[in-house]
Design goal:
With 61 residues, the protein is mainly alpha-helical. 89% of the residues lie in helices and 0% in strands. The chain has one domain. This is DUF2065 domain-containing protein.
Length: 61
C-alpha cells in the first residue's frame, strides 16, 4: 500500500512538472490569473480537482 501511494505521489510530481518545463510562460501566466481569483473560486477549483481525481480512481480501480 505504501509503495502504491509513493508511486502515485511520484507520478503526480512528474505531471505537475510538465507544464513549467514545456511552457514556462504559459505556467507563469496561469499563476498570474490565479492570484486574481477569490478564495471561494480557488476552493471551488481545488474541490473540483479532488472530485475528478476521486472519480478517475473509482473508474480505473
Amino acid at each position: 500500500m505504501t509503495e502504491t501511494i509513493l508511486l502515485a505521489f511520484a507520478l503526480m510530481l512528474v505531471l505537475e512538472g510538465l507544464l513549467p518545463f514545456l511552457a514556462p510562460n504559459a505556467w507563469r501566466e496561469t499563476f498570474r490569473r490565479l492570484i486574481q481569483f477569490s478564495d471561494g473560486q480557488i476552493r471551488f477549483v481545488g474541490l473540483t480537482s479532488m472530485l475528478v481525481g476521486l472519480i478517475l480512481i473509482m473508474i480505473f480501480k
